[in-house]
Design brief:
Elements lengths: L4 H18 L3 H14 L3 H6 L13 E5 L4 E9 L10 H13 L12 H16 L3 E9 L4 H12 L5 E6 L1 H11 L9 E5 L6 E4 L7 E10 H11 L20 H6 L3 H10 L3 E5 L1 E7 L2 E7 L2 E4 L1 H9 L10 E9 L3 H14 L7 H4 L4 H11 L6 E3 L4 H4 L2 H7 L3 E3 H15 L24
Parallel strand pairs: 2-3, 3-4, 8-12, 13-14
Antiparallel strand pairs: 1-2, 5-10, 6-7, 7-12, 8-11, 9-10
Helix pairs in contact: 1-2, 4-6, 5-17, 8-11
Length: 446
């Protein structure tokens, strides 16, 4: 994408205005402004999350623990006065990899002005690793990052472990996000061709008694063809998606991307992935020399933006025929009823409750034992090992605990702090180590 002068000027003005608000230099304001742009943090949150920009910060320019999306972000930011042309050297970017290694062991952090802050970051990152969250090393640059530098960084980050990924935001990428956030049109008057995975791999549903819906079908689409259309049309394919933000592409499911990296994973993608929902003005199945094609008029991916984004980002490693994606295609009428149906489909398919990695571990025997132990105290404490468990209790049960309640995440964070400060490490993970926690104040544990 060719850089636009108006975007470069907009970026520089945004950073300069942010710098003026906090009376700091532009290079200091840049990572904080980037947090507001990429992660939707408010200004004060962003500034506080990037307050390690001085000598001795181990190369970390900011951090953000996104518990809602199971991602822990470590940030390295570089601001160039000429973001349209300046090229970033790899030297400054390598520091973040060393920082990620350092943060694995908070006891190794040297005494100094940043000891407390880095220890806090280390504890949060270790908690993220315990919960099997993704650790994203984000390189945010008002300038250019050369392809060789990207490759070097990606290879180095992979050596840190399977939880670690590298994400790059240079000027060109930020312009793409800026364009996507501007008022955009859909694909009215245009068609998109999706390749069907194989012969007969679609099923057309009979007429639905839903006002505004003309017809619908279930089809297996070729992942590479989806990736190419997303790459070609970008945000115009998602104009009707109530939850699609290109600024959130750093939050895509790490495991999904990992699945695409192996032949076995690509073959099983249809089973592992929830698929897409596409709404169109009309569609038809056409037989061509290359196979069956789903030709859709004004296609809109209303659910599955993360899947589509991952396929686009990994399309270099995907050949036609490698990946099959289960898809619903729905044609809505060109009327008020049709527009209402489109809105409802987009909203309802994006409203399912998110399942977190920590939720999947709520039924581990360890958590059940902790729950029983808290419940057996003289003044019992309710250990909420599952989200929403407290609300599910009746009033009589809640009265028993007199509002004494602890979430498993709170207990884990306090234990981590206790373990590091006392030097016992991760003893609670071992069957031969017993750790006793005694409540000392109502409603909490020291």
């Amino acid at each position: 994408m060719e850089l636009a002068v108006d975007f470069v000027n907009w970026l520089k003005n945004q950073v300069h205005d942010f710098a003026g608000k906090y009376t700091v230099a532009d290079h200091r304001a840049f990572p904080a402004w980037a947090f507001t742009f990429l992660f939707d943090l408010d200004d004060d949150q962003a500034f506080n999350a990037t307050d390690t920009l001085t000598q001795g910060d181990a190369g970390i320019d900011g951090w953000y623990f996104d518990t809602d999306n199971s991602v822990f972000h470590l940030i390295q930011a570089k601001y160039h006065e000429s973001p349209e042309s300046s090229v970033t050297s790899p030297d400054g970017l390598r520091a973040l990899i060393h920082a990620a290694l350092l943060l694995r062991d908070s006891s190794a952090i040297a005494t100094g002005p940043h000891h407390d802050k880095l220890s806090e970051v280390s504890l949060s990152m270790q908690q993220a690793l315990d919960d099997n969250f993704s650790i994203s090393l984000d390189y945010i640059v008002a300038g250019r990052i050369g392809p060789n530098v990207r490759t070097e960084i990606e290879i180095a980050v992979r050596t840190l472990g399977q939880n670690y990924t590298a994400t790059f935001y240079d000027t060109e990428r930020m312009q793409e996000l800026w364009v996507s956030d501007e008022p955009i049109g859909d694909l009215s008057g245009e068609t998109g061709d999706f390749l069907v995975s194989g012969t007969g791999e679609y099923y057309e549903k009979g007429k639905l008694e839903v006002p505004g819906v003309a017809k619908s079908a279930i089809v297996s689409l070729d992942g590479r063809s989806i990736a190419e259309l997303v790459s070609k049309h970008g945000a115009r394919l998602f104009q009707a998606n109530v939850r699609y933000y290109l600024t959130k592409t750093n939050r895509v499911n790490k495991e999904m991307a990992k699945t695409l990296e192996s032949l076995e994973g690509r073959s099983a993608f249809w089973l592992y992935n929830n698929g897409l929902t596409i709404v169109a003005d009309d569609y038809e199945f056409i037989e061509t020399d290359d196979g069956t094609v789903l030709r859709a008029s004004n296609p809109q991916i209303v659910n599955g933006a993360q899947t589509s984004s991952v396929l686009r980002d990994r399309r270099a490693m995907i050949e036609y025929g490698d990946v099959s994606v289960q898809t619903r295609i729905i044609a809505t009428e060109r009327s008020d009823l049709g527009r209402s149906a489109l809105t409802n489909i987009s909203e309802y398919t994006n409203s399912q409750s998110q399942v977190r990695i920590s939720d999947l571990r709520a039924n581990d025997e360890r958590h059940k034992k902790i729950q029983r132990a808290f419940d057996s105290l003289k003044e019992p404490i309710f250990y909420e090992r599952r989200r929403g468990e407290w609300q599910a209790l009746d009033k009589a049960a809640q009265t028993k605990y007199a509002k004494r309640r602890m979430k498993k995440e709170d207990v884990g964070q306090r234990y981590r702090l206790f373990a590091v400060s006392s030097g016992i490490g991760a003893g609670w993970m071992r069957p031969d180590v017993t750790v006793e926690c005694r409540p000392t104040v109502p409603g909490g544990v020291d």
